[in-house]
Each structure stands twice: as structure tokens, then as C-alpha cells.
Design a protein that fits this description.
Number of strands: 0
Radius of gyration: 23 Å
Strand content: under 5%
Number of domains: 2
Structural class: mainly alpha
Helix content: 55-70%
Shape: elongated
Largest sheet: none
Length: 111
């Protein structure tokens, strides 16, 4: 039994199977074109940063826009990660344990 294997030159092989690895844009199907019409894609950490900053400034329009950039679960993860990193940074700055800082930020009595 003979198998036919199509041999592609190195660069062509990479472009065909791994378009994102060669720095070239991936091939788009007709279904992908409307999504590609967006100005650019946002990652979950960027969305979380914009969302939290907008919420802190009571900017409902900005937070709603950032919430549309990623799936709700991804935004939740990004906000959680941002909260953890911010708490750690603030605790280091104050030279206090993170739990003490968290309780202080929320107006809770010391444990």
C-alpha cells in the first residue's frame, strides 16, 4: 500500500499549517470577515484593565464597551487577576499582609 504525501517547501508548509507562527495573517473565511472588520482584537487583561478603570470612574459606557471585547468568563478571570495583583502591590507598598489591606479597602474590621 502506497501513501501519497504532499511535500511542501519549508516556508509554504509553515504558511499553510501555522499562519500565525510566520507573522502572516491567518486565512479568513467568509464567516470571519465581519469579525475582522473590528478595529482590533483585545485580550482579556486589556479588557479587564479598561473595565475596572471605567467602573472606578463611574463610566458606564466605557465599562460596557470593554465588557463586549471578551467573553464574560474571560472578563471575570481578568478582573480577578487584576484584583489579586493590585492587592499584592498595595500590600507591599504598605508593608502589610494582603488580608489586612483587603479588609481595610472594604471597610471591614481587622481580623
Amino acid at each position: 500500500m502506497r501513501h501519497s504525501l504532499r511535500i511542501l517547501p519549508g516556508r509554504t508548509f509553515l504558511r499553510h499549517w501555522f499562519p500565525h507562527r510566520t507573522g502572516e495573517p491567518a486565512r479568513q473565511t467568509a464567516a470571519d470577515r465581519p469579525a475582522a472588520a473590528e478595529a482590533r482584537r483585545h485580550n482579556l487583561f486589556e479588557a479587564a484593565a479598561v473595565y475596572v478603570a471605567a467602573c472606578a470612574e463611574n463610566d458606564e459606557q466605557g465599562s460596557a464597551e470593554a465588557a463586549r471585547w471578551v467573553q464574560p468568563e474571560a472578563l471575570t478571570f481578568g478582573v480577578h487577576e487584576l484584583a489579586c495583583r493590585a492587592l499584592i502591590a498595595l500590600a507591599r507598598e504598605r508593608d502589610e499582609p494582603p488580608q489586612t489591606v483587603a479588609r481595610s479597602l472594604l471597610g471591614l474590621p481587622a481580623a
